[in-house]
Amino acid sequence: MKFKKALAVGVAALLVSGLTVGLTACKDDDDGNGVASDYNFAVDGNKVTVRWDKYEGATGYSIEKSPTRHGEYEYIGYVDGTVNEYVADDINSYYKITTYTQSGDIVVVGIYSQETALFGKNTFVYSPDDDPAKIKEELDAFYKKTDGTKEGEQQRARGEFTEERLAAFFKAGDYDVNINMGYYTALAGLGASPDDVVITQVNTDAPISLCNFWRTAENLTVNSNMRWAVSQATSLRRVHVKGDLSLSSTVGDTTTSGGFIADTKVDGTVISGSQQQWLSRNSSFGSWSGCVWNTALVGVEGNLPANSWGGTGGNYTNIENSGTIREKPYLTYDQTNGYRVFVPNANSTRGTSWNGSGEYLSLDKFYVARSDRDTAATINAQLEKGKNLILTAGVYELEAPLKVEQEGAVVLGLGLATLRPTDGNTDTLMRIADTDNIRIGGLLFDAGKSTKTLLEVGGENGTADHSATPAVLSDLFFRVGGAKEENTSVNACVVINSNNVIGDNFWIWRADHWDGVGWDKNKADTGIIVNGNNVTFYGLFVEHFQKYQTVWNGNGGTTYFYQSELPYDVPNAQSWSPDGTVNGYASYYVSEGVTTHTAYSLGVYSYLRDAAVTLDSAIVCPQTPGMNFNHMVTVWLTGKTASAITHIINGKGEAAASGSAVQVLAEYPAKNQ
């Protein structure tokens, strides 16, 4: 008893000191049946065996349990130092193993749970019964690793290009916590409705101008004003803000450049501030204030700016109803059903979808992958069995493409799960079959040494009509270079061959700064090639590729909002011409032979930094009656030429040049032609 009493006192001291406990990587034998079972946490019916690595010098181990991650722990048992496992009868608790060594030290060996065994050490799951101070302490510790606010370039790299990933989930209830979000952070409620999870405050600020990437918030309510000062590769989905939503920064004079909101309700005003461009779709706002270059509102309810372009009122594209869209699937939890994934059906073309219909898929229909154990081979083996796929937060090195072939397959990334090819994978990272009802969401595709593509949808020359059940691809981000010093290469990041695909918030980026960046270092011809017919995009951001940013070969395409910067590092005019006679590669290129295409709210910007080169037209399309372009803007940021973009589209529109940096064109072709 003396040992146990001393241990209890020591554990109390550790809890007061706020010790951070490391979680051990596991030898996993999960068969994808939805029940977590690994070396540290093996489930058999209603029993769980908790195992830990023996601690040198341990005289014994004390076992405590808590119903939640940061709840109150109670002592439940003790084993001597020769034993390293304990059998308990509560598979839903967290188990803390502590030892008292011969030298008198008290050491927390580990904390083990079904949720950690299932989702991995980069996923934190919180309950309303958790201590709010400990939730904040844990999230603040991650934020300090990635916020980028400290002086020195190394801290910036750790923020923008760190390998750290975090998914923080909140079970239904109220949380009196103020959360700061840095890079690679994903917050999400686990309720059926955003109003099931209420957090006092959520903020993300902008310590670095224009580069506040890689963060998402979903399916929760913020019970105050909210700051969301972000750039590309971010999303705000299914969020209820019970106040105002500010999209710009309080830090110095930093500028924000984003962004994307969907299926969100803001009771007060959305204040865009310094946001250079923004797309909001299928949402409800009390009102909207502000515009810099390009603001699009598609299917949004509220007191909103009128549809106007090029006047004193700002450049607004206000489209009353969106086309058909199905929202991104999301993870839920309740005590009766445990973890499930909700897959929404097609929703209203205006306003939020929170009361919409859909289907719950139990977790036994998914393989839950973890980056500390899984390869392309282990994941594909489960996909071949007909499993859906959850990719938990982490970086996955894939030796071959993931093959998504099952009709109706759902692939959901948590915590900005990142796919990256090994050097031996020269093909692609994911190949999606030409089939119905595919849903992919929440992934970052990172280029490696040399691959043809990063994502392919359907095979070449596909003719199938998927209009009734299209593939929907949500919050997919692509990066070539920046993360490592090694050279990277890809022909095109995304190739869409299937018909009727819906893209919903893509950022496709050839990195313009940090490691492995340069004309001969991170090579990539094209951001995206669309070969399928009747493909629709809501929010397409494509930047810095060495030829065309976007190539559209299919008929019937539609884009709601486009943002693009030309490459900064063009070395000379000869390196940047389709045929030696045309100046530069257009950003948005609809190829000859396409007869119908529609696009709204397009912005193309130039910073031709390294050579005195020019671009004839930012947008190029066939000069046929079926072309319908609405609301275009070009911007001269800076550069070596006074007139970088000569025309907006097909030789029409004034030059974006020093002294007249922003040029707009309302429509092409003009209706009076």
**Mean pLDDT across residues:** 91
What portion of the residues fall into strands of 2 or more residues?
A: 35-45%
What profile does the largest beta sheet have? Answer: 12 strands, mixed
**Which regions are unreliable across 5 or more consecutive residues at pLDDT < 50?**
1-33
Rg, nearest Å: 26 Å
Gap between N and C termini: 93 Å
How would the global form be characterised? globular
Number of strands: 48
Structural class: mainly beta
Helix count, DSSP H or I runs of 4 or more residues: 5
Helix content: under 10%
Q: Domain count, please report it.
A: 4
In a few lines, what is going on in this structure?
The chain is mainly beta.
Strand-helix topology:
Layout: H1 2-17, E1 41-44, E2 47-51, E3 58-66, E4 74-80, E5 85-88, E6 94-101, E7 106-113, H2 114-119, E8 123-126, H3 132-146, H4 153-161, E9 166-170, E10 173-180, E11 185-189, E12 197-204, E13 215-222, E14 226-228, E15 234-241, E16 245-246, E17 260-262, E18 265-271, E19 277-281, E20 284-289, E21 294-298, E22 301-303, E23 316-319, E24 330-334, E25 338-344, E26 358-362, E27 366-369, H5 376-384, E28 388-391, E29 395-398, E30 402-404, E31 410-421, E32 430-432, E33 439-446, E34 455-457, E35 472-480, E36 488-496, E37 502-510, E38 522-530, E39 536-543, E40 550-552, E41 557-565, E42 588-590, E43 597-608, E44 615-620, E45 627-639, E46 643-649, E47 656-657, E48 662-668
Parallel strand pairs: 8-9, 9-11, 10-12, 11-13, 12-13, 12-14, 13-15, 14-16, 15-17, 15-18, 16-18, 17-19, 18-20, 19-21, 20-22, 21-23, 27-28, 28-31, 29-31, 30-32, 31-33, 32-34, 33-35, 34-36, 35-37, 36-38, 37-39, 38-40, 39-41, 40-42, 41-43, 42-44, 43-45, 44-46
Antiparallel strand pairs: 1-2, 2-5, 3-4, 3-6, 6-7, 24-25, 25-26, 45-48, 46-47
